[in-house]
């Protein structure tokens, strides 16, 4: 087993990895930017090193600096967390060349699956259903128009290197296509340094259901079941649960089989997620594979009893998947709310929920500074119940207990969302937020008004 790992991440996921390492008797080296000098992840690691100014491009994204620090501090491996360099094949390759273990799939697997267009084509070739759309990169409006002539409107313009909902635009007609194509491409170039685009048929109001996979170096692949991530704001997940309220056993089995096939043909190693959208007639389509740990991984941990970070480290170390991973029985229902910052500032008072069935993943503390440079995620509230209804009731009371003063957050929104009839019935799709948010925002506004008077 590794003796020392460099954690190339910040925020809650850096803490999550450091905590796991402590339990495995592995030392950790944290890296932090100037804005993060008082961060918890830097304080609790075995050692910590400042790697540059606040902007991610000058700190967390500087692969050569991370490698230099890892070598200097005697680390054997690098855990990239999520975001930043976690799906960057060049970084994984740089690690491999320097004799460091990248805790994730080999760089050629990241190239194969991290490029969304390449992954689409690979899936198509092995019979995993993909959304109708382009087979090659679209770099100008003329070739965009060509794809649209074949598949018809509405379409979704997507970035091949995309992530986090960026560089994505819907077009309902030729005017919108012309307008949106240029802006989407500019956004992709700015965010990912790559302007390769592709076009997909826009599926009306689908469900987002993804499958968690673990694969070792010896060709063993297991599925740890699905997560429903259909509740999204601007194509970014804000709530996740498992099991999903949507699929019957047949659909569930077919999606699991497709995900395992995706992992097998890409020669996948490590923890990964195969994302699908499901339409109103329960047809499912591959949209992308995330070749890293995901924000919502704890809900799967809660129902499976498998520590996914620990498995990532074990697999990277060359160990086989254990019998505990092969013989998972999902018994419970788990859900996660992402509590995001809507402003920056100082946390003046903080109280976390606790008690039976509640898990908190967070890097914030009383008096800490929330800076605008990074992801707005503040707290992940995860609950487990014997049934979906029990989990809903537990999440409601957990969010009632949560107090974050000094920063505007989406806590109230998430809390009220848990009372909407469609959510309670488990009848929601990716259009849920658009449909419900004005009503919920109005309730929050009028409640605040009442309190003032
Ligand atoms: P998904 O990418 O499916 O939304 P997560 O919610 O787990 O999955 O994403 C993890 C974090 O990484 C998010 O905050 C997201 O904004 C960020 N992220 C994902 N892909 C990229 C990327 N290619 N470049 C920059 N950030 C990304
Ligand atoms: P990212 O890399 O940003 O996570 P994804 O390709 O995973 O991008 O898509 C993010 C979200 O956008 C999906 O969860 C879904 O809500 C929506 N989406 C993606 N592709 C389609 C599509 N073809 N039709 C309708 N919605 C889509
Ligand atoms: Mg995605």
Structural commentary:
The mean pLDDT is 96. The protein is built from 16 helices and 20 strands. The chain has helices at residues 11-23, 40-44, 63-72, 89-97, 107-114, 116-125, 141-151, 174-192, 249-265, 297-304, 308-316, 323-326, 388-401, 411-417, 421-424, 432-452, and strands spanning 4-7, 27-33, 47-52, 77-79, 101-102, 155-159, 169-171, 197-201, 207-215, 221-233, 236-242, 270-278, 284-290, 333-340, 345-346, 349-351, 358-362, 369-370, 377-385, 403-405. Strands 13-12-9-10-11-14-19-17 form an eight-stranded antiparallel sheet, sandwiched between helices. The radius of gyration is 22 Å and the shape is globular. Helix 4 (89-97) packs antiparallel against helix 5, helix 5 (107-114) crosses helix 6 (116-125) and helix 14 (411-417) packs across helix 16 (432-452). Helix content is 37%, strand content 25%. A hairpin with a 2-residue loop joins strand 10 (221-233) and strand 11. With 453 residues, the protein is an alpha+beta fold. It binds adenosine-5'-diphosphate (2 copies) and magnesium ion (MG). The site of magnesium ion has 2 residues, from loops.
């Amino acid at each position: 087993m590794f003796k020392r790992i460099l954690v190339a991440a910040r925020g809650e996921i850096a803490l999550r990895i450091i905590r796991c390492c402590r339990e495995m008797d592995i030392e950790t080296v944290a890296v932090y930017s100037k804005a993060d000098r008082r961060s918890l992840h830097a304080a609790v690691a075995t050692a910590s090193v400042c790697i540059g100014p606040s902007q991610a491009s000058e700190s967390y994204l500087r692969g050569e600096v991370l490698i230099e620090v890892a070598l200097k501090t005697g680390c054997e491996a690098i855990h990239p967390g999520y975001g930043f360099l976690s799906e960057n094949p060049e970084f994984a390759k740089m690690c491999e060349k320097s004799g460091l273990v990248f805790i994730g799939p080999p760089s050629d697997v990241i190239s194969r699956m991290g490029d969304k267009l390449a992954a689409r084509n690979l899936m198509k070739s092995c019979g995993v259903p993909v959304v109708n759309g382009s087979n090659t990169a679209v770099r100008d409006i003329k070739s965009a128009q060509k794809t649209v002539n074949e598949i018809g409107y509405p379409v979704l313009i997507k970035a091949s290197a995309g992530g986090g909902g960026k560089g994505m635009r819907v077009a309902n007609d030729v005017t919108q296509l012309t307008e949106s194509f240029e802006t989407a491409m500019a956004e992709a170039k700015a965010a990912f340094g790559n302007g390769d685009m592709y076009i997909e048929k826009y599926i009306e109001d689908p469900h987002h259901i993804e499958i968690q996979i673990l694969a070792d170096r010896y060709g063993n692949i297991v599925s740890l079941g699905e997560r429903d991530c259909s509740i999204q704001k601007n194509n970014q997940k804000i709530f996740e649960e498992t099991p999903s309220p949507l699929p019957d056993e047949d659909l569930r089995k077919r999606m699991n089989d497709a995900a395992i096939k995706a992992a097998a043909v890409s020669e996948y190693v490590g923890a990964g997620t195969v994302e699908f959208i499901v339409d109103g007639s329960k047809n499912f389509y591959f949209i992308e594979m995330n070749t890293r740990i995901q924000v919502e991984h704890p809900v799967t941990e809660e129902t499976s009893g498998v520590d996914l970070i620990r498995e990532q480290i074990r697999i990277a170390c060359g160990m086989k998947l254990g019998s505990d991973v092969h013989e998972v029985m999902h018994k419970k229902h788990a859900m996660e709310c992402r509590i995001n910052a809507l402003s920056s500032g100082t946390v003046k008072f903080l109280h976390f929920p606790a008690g039976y069935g509640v898990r908190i993943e967070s890097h914030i503390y009383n008096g800490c500074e929330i800076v605008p440079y990074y992801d707005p995620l503040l707290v992940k509230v995860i609950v487990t119940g014997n049934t979906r209804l029990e989990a809903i009731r537990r999440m409601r009371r957990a969010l009632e207990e949560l107090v974050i003063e000094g920063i505007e957050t989406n806590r109230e929104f998430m809390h009220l969302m848990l009372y909407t009839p469609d959510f309670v019935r488990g009848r929601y799709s990716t259009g849920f937020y658009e449909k419900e948010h004005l009503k919920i925002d109005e309730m929050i506004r009028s409640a605040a008004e009442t309190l003032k008077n």
